[in-house]
């Protein structure tokens, strides 16, 4: 116990005597953690954005305008019975017209030709959502069943695959950049740790030689440097929390607004639920890698 | 207490530090080791606390063969041997008390023992009233006495001193030698490496003379002859 306290005291003295180097070390560690958190946030936003868009993928099944409603309800029931179907909603001809107008609100030609027709050209419509985008071919095929095929005028597969691909592409590129940046920062941080320990050993070489001379165990000589690595990692992690959490709180509404509803991405909520584990994991990894760098520095410069 | 059997030390690539040295120091003895510069005195002294390992031969301390001592056993050895060496100075930013306490702290002694032992050893070297001073505020002789106090904290059976009076004037030199004699009278085996003719001649103790890494003379009540 006394020994442990002494080791901590020596570690703390190392940090204070080497103040500027410790500061640089903590800064580099913090940059590493910040870029890791940007990466985490980016992943989350991309994943949830893709999920959001995937959720919008649907097949519209347009029935002939003279198909009586029970037949449409039948078809809806059949589709609901399929394992691959997540949700089926029935749209009446009036609603269908509204939807169409909305979707083509900016397309003058379409709207004008709609007016020229004079009456509602739409029949009832079923909007089918699949569990997975890959299930759509199966669903479309199922509707080719003669029982329904005659009533169905058209099937329209609103393909968001392009959008999803673009999100994927962008986020993959951003992710690669983020990983690269994190790795670079981590490497710089480790070089800085290595150098800090090296300096610490040089600054304390008289103490260390005396320690060895009077019978300090090698573990006792080394422990302060390892504790120092842990303490610096801890400080960097705490600072990262202090920067990341307010930042997330600040940008969360903006991201929410970008998609249509704060609950879609909910970065803040993610950090509220997983933040502790996330930062703890970051600290553990950072401390582990720092101790490794410390170990290398000691092996090179500390002959105990 | 100390036994060397045909000990040789060759520093890489081929500098001879010691050549086939055999000697036996009995418990409680006071031995001076003299010789010209570069004859292996420091090398011999370092063998005794495993700072250097012999290239050939065997070193035994208190019945413990330390020829091939494992690294993790070295601290145990050093807690039984007091060392006064010019390379191991005082820490300028610690007080006298802290410098002495440091030796106990880092070898895991409980605080209670530190509070008890440090004043004791400072008293032995007659510096118990200067515990709060910094090394810079002491004379050379006083500083060397603090170093000796520090070497005593583990109540060593052997004290190895390499040129402890090297930078000191006559009066301070005499003080240090008297101190070593006192420590020897307490029962500690003392190995003193020195250049100082007058010190050796006044001691009237055993003198081992090295030349070219070899023992050229070993006399019970010797004189300085280099
Ligand atoms: N670490 C070392 N590496 C290489 N040569 C050394 C080393 N230490 C001492 N020597 C050489 O060994 C010989 C004995 O040195 P040393 O024991 O210091 O002599 P002394 O203390 O009698 O002056 C000298 O020639 C010295 O140059
Ligand atoms: Mg010498």
UniProtKB/TrEMBL annotation, chain A:
Gene3D superfamilies: 3.30.70.3040. Its main location: membrane. The keyword Mitochondrion does not apply. Residues 57-144 form the FtsX extracellular domain. The chain crosses the membrane at residues 20-46, 176-203, 223-248, 279-298. GO terms for biological process: cell division. It is found in: Cell membrane. It comes from the Bacteria. GO terms for cellular component: plasma membrane. Keywords: Cell cycle, Cell division, Cell membrane, Membrane, Transmembrane, Transmembrane helix. The keyword Transmembrane helix applies. InterPro entries: ABC3_permease_C, FtsX, FtsX_ECD. It is a multi-pass membrane protein. Residues 181-302 form the ABC3 transporter permease C-terminal domain. Belongs to the ABC-4 integral membrane protein family. FtsX subfamily. This is Cell division protein FtsX. It comes from Candidatus Uhrbacteria bacterium RIFCSPHIGHO2_01_FULL_63_20.
Automatic annotation (TrEMBL), chain B:
The keyword Cell cycle applies. GO terms for cellular component: plasma membrane. PROSITE patterns: ABC_TRANSPORTER_1, ABC_TRANSPORTER_2. InterPro entries: AAA+_ATPase, ABC_transporter-like_ATP-bd, ABC_transporter-like_CS, ABC_transpr_LolD-like, Cell_div_FtsE, P-loop_NTPase. It is a peripheral membrane protein. GO terms for biological process: cell division. GO terms for molecular function: ATP binding; ATP hydrolysis activity; transmembrane transporter activity. Residues 2-226 form the ABC transporter domain. Keywords: ATP-binding, Cell cycle, Cell division, Cell membrane, Membrane, Nucleotide-binding. It is found in: Cell membrane. The keyword Zinc-finger does not apply. It holds the Pfam family ABC_tran. SUPFAM superfamilies: P-loop containing nucleoside triphosphate hydrolases. Its main location: membrane. Part of the ABC transporter FtsEX involved in cellular division. Belongs to the ABC transporter superfamily. Homodimer. Forms a membrane-associated complex with FtsX. This is Cell division ATP-binding protein FtsE. It comes from Candidatus Uhrbacteria bacterium RIFCSPHIGHO2_01_FULL_63_20. The gene is ftsE.
